[in-house]
Amino acid sequence: MEYEWFKMKINLSRKFHPPVTKKCYMPGAEKRSKVNLLCSNMDKGKSKGYGSSSTQSKVDAYRTEQTVETWTSEDENSEDSDMPYLKLQEANNIFKAIYKEIMTIAFKAKYYIKTLPALGSIEEFQKVFRISPPPGVRLETTTETAIVPIPARTLCMNLMDLDSWHASMSHIFQYVGGNMPDDVFQDLKHEDPSILHVEKVNVEFHLPTPFAAVRKFSFLRFLKEVMPDELWTVIDVSEDYFHDVGNMTERKCRRRPSAVLIRACDDHSEVIWIENMEVPKQSQLQDDTYSALINSDEAFSAKRWVNALLWNLKRFRGTFFMQEIKWGHPSYLSLLSLTTNMRMDFMKCLRGSPDDRDWKILTDHGMRIMQDATGRSHEACNICGYTSVVSFRIQAKPQLVFQYLVKKNRQLQWLLLVDEEAKEILRFAADDESNLVTLHQRPAIKKEDWKTEEYLLQEASWDGFCYLIISATMNQADVYFSLIARYKDVDLKPSGFAIVPDGPESSLVTFSLQEDLLVPDAETGIRVKSYVTNRIISEIMEEMAGVLEAKS
What we know:
With 552 residues, this protein is of the alpha+beta class. The protein contains 13 helices and 18 strands.
């Protein structure tokens, strides 16, 4: 009933809209690239340099708009000709209400927002953001603040460059796609010059396991300048707030007004992160294995996003502690680019619905087994790529499991070496070792009359919630061309572990093993992968029991 009441009120306001003074705006603005658009908009009209804000200043968001009176004919005053204008005015009022709701949340959290913006009579629009969720849906609202070591403008552009943002946060969400929104939102940018950019976004929030429910969102992302050279906000909100409010109950996952407020502090940024979303209630009967984890606010909380942002920045500020590659010095950017791609490929295997252009699911009962669908395998020799993915619990804290699996993962990748230990020839680490990249060299293997060296690239990381251990084997040419010469992308097949907390003394572990098999058919491939994966899990459980016993 609340939804219907609000819909009726909006329709009445449209019907009896009083005459207003029109504002000039340009519907057909020339299109530019995203980065150039952001740079030009953010630099427009600036008289002082970056980082001039004072940490003591009181932040509000009042903006004075100058109206321009225009002459209109009687035909232009007709109901049909006024409809686009009325839609624009409604969208403008709704956006103001969204912005005020965000500032209200930040103000109530007692962060650096000291006063609320004066935006006129928009209370009726703002009420819709406080309606109780429909049956079967719950509300998650979390906030977090932090000082992050990145300039404010750079952070704004990183958040608006969705491909780059996905690459840095691929362990939390999958960027499905985006496009330019409706014309009314493009016109809204000209109506409100503080809106620097807007884009429509489709994403999936996921836990690092294919067996837990995925949260699918479709929303608009705005970049708004609040105070020149001092304060910006990146706003996410579901598009259906701007359209027929009767559709609100149809979508199970929905972005209520959410935002990242970004204040310039010299070469750092002070952020307020607001996550505000409607998500399905997960019943214990629906998914007993993952319901407690899904129902917790930790996995997609504002604190998780802030910690993940800090982790990624530390990752790029890492240092080489060891470098013994014989043919030259690797670039840290090439190294991190390679491990970023490795993590993205690893997470593709853990998606709830993998891209059928990459993988064909053969079985999905308790253990997922997939066959390579890219055509990269040697079909003529009956060699085909297979991946197994399975999640299981270990009754131990995630940090202890992580420490054990960092070394175990190398043994699994090489089916290693009882008498010989691989040699570490490269180590690149963050200051707090929240991210550690290593390259190990396996002793030379003699093949006929020549010897070949094999390498294992591994990244072990922790973002405050999720631990990841991802690795892939490389040959000498892969190492040289990707890390030293830096002009060739290599096709790696990553395997590894994802570990998340599942209660105070328990961990949920997801194991993905990717390998080529010489088998006559897919059924044989399923049997081989099932046997190998189950044997590895049994070995892990047995060895972890020994670790816990020794620790006690």
